[in-house]
Amino acid sequence: MSNTEQTGRPGVDAGDEQSLGAAGEHLSTAPAQDEESAEVALPRLGAIGWIRWFWRQLTSMRVALILLFLLSLGAIPGSLIPQNGVDETKVDAFKKAHGTLAPIYEKLQLFDVYGSVWFSAIYILLFVSLIGCILPRTWQFVGQLRSRPPGAPKRLTRLPAYTTWRTGATPEEARGEALRLLRKNRFRAHVAGDAVAAEKGYLREVGNLLFHVALIVMLLAFAAGQLFKSEGGKLIVEGDGFANTLSQYDDFRSGSLFSLDDLGHFSFELDSFTGTYETDGPQRGTPRTFEAAVTYAEGGGPDKKAVIRVNEPLEVDGAKVYLISHGYAPVITVRDGRGKVVSQGPVPLLPIDANVTSQGVLKVMDGYTDKNGKKDQLGIPAFFVPTYAGKGKGDMFSQFPGLVYPVLSLSAYHGDLRVDSGVPQNVYQLDTSKMTPFKDATGDILRKQLTPGETFTLPDGAGSITFEKEIKEWASFQISQQPGNGWALTGAVAAILGLIGSLFVQRRRVWVRAVRGEDGVTVIEMAGLGRSESAKLPEELAELAAALHSAAPSAPADDVVDHDAEPAEEAVPAEGATQ
């Protein structure tokens, strides 16, 4: 039996291994006889060791990308599912329509994604991970900037891009020309021994750091926008105005750190609204122009004129006023049983389709009395179409969004509007639980279609409702203050620039060695090494070599060849090099 068969290792016999004692047992590769002896005592991680391991994992680029991906996934339900901070009415409607899913979504905090525990955890971990990535890399990069490029390797022929030639210039002259050439081409270069060492492409790392810093800026801007934001809506009829105070808003939402003192000091009035539409062809009814002409004043200053368009907000005192939607407000006059005017003015109605078919309610709470002088309240549901198809030509729906053939359909109820019940009411809906409808001779609910100028007379001397010839338009505005928007935009632009730099800039090093050969002729070697693979490195080295060759040209053949000397080993360029 051979030594290998006896001990499991070639060249060592059993007797030699026994003479080595315990050391020989550790050197042997033979199978262990005792299973207990095969157990290896691994060091145990203590609390500090586990903390270090967790910190290294958290600050790794892999984990940062995973957290960024999770943050993107977490934002998807915030876009698809109604949010409490955006529209509570839609949230309530969703809960009523989905009795099974609603409790599950509630437990998962899907109705308040951006304020949920799990989204905040991902957000904070990503923030910490990016900071943990940036700080050591920044310190390391500063150290690289303060230091000089490393000296030339001993064997430049092993580098991926290499070239060499002999020249009649002295080594000092060749190195001087190489130093000037490389610095002229924006390399950081210096003479190190018998070679010139140069490096270029620091913008790649600058781009990487800029990208990560920009992500942190965007995260901070997002957090500031959520904590200090304010956002409210206001519906304004032509001729009416708005002052930026809390009581003027129809709805208002703000961040947890927002203060009412932060509201901008301004006001504006809606002078007119202009909407135009395509009148014929396959795109008939498509909006062409939405413009709201306003007069505004900032901080008690002089009045100024402006036009607000879709995606062209009015910027005033740190806030932006966006044009959101529009509709019609027919002017309606209500008289009581004695002919006294108890209500007169435009009644905003909400659109329910693209052709601005609208509905709403006029509530007469005070001042109305019947023919006997008894106080009562009126509720008048209204249905308005700006372009009526005509009787017998379809349902009561508009055929065109413009005012071509306006018709107003009305019915009426009297009784208790329940506005003093303590239960919040929608101003565009009517609670008929304590009200009685006016009926016609057949016992059905009395309804009347009116054109501008016509009057709807209520039965039993209860009064009348007149659809005036004037029809006003209203516009809905969103007044928003988000202090982080500018920073978020800056961070996004910086992130794109940093990403471009990190992808298209290559970090590379070039060495030029100039030494005197055995025959007394100067030998120049040039080699390049990229921090990442790129086909441009050999091309760049070829251009540098050509420029240096013009300053230190090849020596004549008679000076280069020494027939008495032993032939030197020819340097063969590596694959992809330039000779």
TrEMBL record:
It is a multi-pass membrane protein. It is found in: Membrane. Residues 548-558, 570-579 have a biased composition (Low complexity). Keywords: Cytochrome c-type biogenesis, Membrane, Transmembrane, Transmembrane helix. Residues 61-541 form the ResB-like domain. The chain crosses the membrane at residues 63-81, 117-139, 209-228, 486-505. The keyword Cytoplasm does not apply. Residues 548-579 are annotated as: Disordered. The keyword Nucleotide-binding does not apply. Pfam families: ResB. This is Cytochrome c biogenesis protein ResB. It comes from Streptomyces changanensis.
